[in-house]
């Protein structure tokens, strides 16, 4: 029983990392209708910005807050100067642009800071406590709590605020939103800025666990995209729950299904995705899109 609880807790902790990126992807999609494959690279850049501010003498909490603020500006600038030229165009072109942006940002991070592993301090103490026979890391518990708080705030943003409703309106029909007097351009910039700021949170949560490297978010991005597909693009709560499901299931499968083991555990979430897409294409928590013809 202790082993099962340990695997469950570790899976929730790992899933929280996936959830942070998945929420940023959902935020961009809700604001612009695009899937941002560069979200992981933006999170890495945010981590390096926090690392640079830390080395400049700022306390850890101020370095993280500064990174979040700078990341918001970078995200807004990327949308204004690059992405806007491809929004509402061919979706395939937009995908290629975000993949190219991922490669560019990763290369810039490697050029400025090299591929050497950098040690980034954790915001939470590196201690453990006993829970039903399992050891729970306070860092993992802190990450879990942060993601739950972000999930709630993001859900509140989209459902209960004028800004969130405006972002959704712009995503669904930018022309009608513009005719209604909404500042479409500024809303798109805000959407990308908020997603980049959320990516900064993901970066500073992941860096202490994986060490800071240009490619540290590559695997996490794959799982985050899987969580987005499984949970549904329209539901922040859904993608977080899906990320936790993925984290827990791959841990349990690695231990309790012998022919899978740790080498093939990555297959588990993708098999689950195939099943979900066949039964419920909009994801477990997503809404069906109704198109009038």
TrEMBL record:
The subcellular localization recorded is: Cell membrane
| Name listed for the protein in its UniProt record | Branched-chain amino acid ABC transporter permease
- Membrane spanning stretches: 7-28, 61-83, 95-115, 136-158, 189-208, 220-247, 253-279
Family designation: Belongs to the binding-protein-dependent transport system permease family. LivHM subfamily.
The protein's topology relative to the membrane is: Multi-pass membrane protein
Provide the primary localization.
membrane
What is the organism field in this record? Leucobacter allii
Which keywords are on file for this protein? Answer: Amino-acid transport, Cell membrane, Membrane, Transmembrane, Transmembrane helix, Transport
């Amino acid at each position: 029983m202790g082993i099962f609880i340990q695997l469950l807790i570790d899976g929730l902790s790992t899933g929280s990392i996936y959830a942070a990126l998945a929420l940023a992807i959902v935020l961009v999609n809700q604001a612009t209708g695009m899937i941002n494959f560069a979200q992981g690279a933006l999170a890495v850049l945010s981590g390096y910005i926090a690392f640079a501010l830390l080395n400049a003498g700022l306390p850890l909490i101020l370095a993280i807050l500064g990174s979040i603020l700078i990341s918001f500006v970078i995200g807004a600038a990327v949308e204004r100067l690059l992405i806007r030229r491809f929004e509402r165009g061919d979706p395939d072109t937009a995908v290629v642009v975000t993949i190219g942006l991922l490669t560019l940002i990763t290369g810039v991070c490697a050029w400025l800071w090299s591929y050497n592993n950098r040690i980034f301090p954790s915001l939470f103490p590196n201690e453990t406590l006993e829970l039903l026979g399992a050891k729970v890391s306070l860092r993992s518990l802190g990450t879990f709590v942060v993601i739950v708080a972000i999930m709630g705030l993001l859900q509140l943003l989209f459902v209960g605020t004028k800004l969130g409703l405006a972002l959704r309106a712009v995503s669904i029909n930018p022309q009608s939103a513009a005719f209604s007097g909404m500042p479409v351009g500024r809303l798109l910039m805000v959407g990308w800025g908020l997603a980049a700021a959320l990516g900064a949170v993901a970066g500073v949560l992941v860096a202490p666990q994986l060490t800071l490297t240009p490619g540290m978010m590559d695997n996490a991005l794959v799982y985050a995209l899987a969580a987005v597909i499984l949970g549904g693009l329209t539901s922040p709560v859904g993608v977080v729950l899906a990320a936790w499901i993925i984290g827990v299931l791959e841990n349990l499968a690695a231990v309790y299904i012998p022919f899978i083991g740790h080498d093939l555990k990555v297959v588990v979430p993708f098999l689950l995705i195939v099943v979900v897409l066949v039964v419920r294409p909009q994801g477990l928590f997503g809404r069906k899109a109704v198109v009038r013809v």
